[in-house]
């Protein structure tokens, strides 16, 4: 079980590095867009949409990385008063009853939309935009999958910690 957890964590860690690289590219593209628009009077819908795509990938894939790094929003008001064993139990229940069902729901609810988008090779509604909307929509179930995998990793960590407290 520990090797599965480490494998998932390493994979999500690599996604975190990829996200960091993408943020640098996104900042460069924003600066380039501003320069082209305000200094050269050149506008590009494709460039603006590429920034939007990177922004979407950054947030959607960043969710699983935030979970791994324990950087997600949570309420510590009650858990600060709990023992380590009780905290682990609360986290285990939260993962089982909230995170995993949420991840599966995201996958389930978005799959038909993505299949339909791929079947028509959905394109941008903007003239001159990127013709990759089907790829952008594919990020949604992938995000659910990443959250699911990271939830399994967190579940393994918390169960291991819970059992070691005994």
Taking pLDDT < 50 over at least 5 consecutive residues as the criterion, the unreliable ranges are none
Tell me the major beta sheet: none
Alpha-carbon Rg, integer:
20 Å
Assign an overall shape.
Answer: elongated
Number of helices: 4
Give the tally of β-strands. Answer: 0
Q: Give the overall pLDDT as a whole number.
A: 89
Number of domains: 1
Strand content: under 5%
The helix content, as a percent range, equals over 70%
Q: What separation lies between the terminal Cα atoms? A: 19 Å
Please identify the structural class as seen in this structure. mainly alpha
Helix and strand string, N-terminal first? HHHH
Helices and strands, with pairings:
Blueprint: H1 2-39, H2 45-68, H3 84-119, H4 133-164
Helix pairs in contact: 1-2, 1-4, 2-4, 3-4
Protein described:
- The mean pLDDT is 89.
- The protein has one domain (2-164).
- It has 166 residues and is mainly alpha-helical.
- The longest helix is centred in the first third of the chain and has 38 residues, at 2-39.
- The protein has four helices and no strands.
Question: Which short descriptors sum up this protein?
Answer:
166 residues, mainly alpha, elongated
Offer a concise description of the structure.
This protein has 166 residues and is an all-alpha fold. It is built from four helices and no strands.
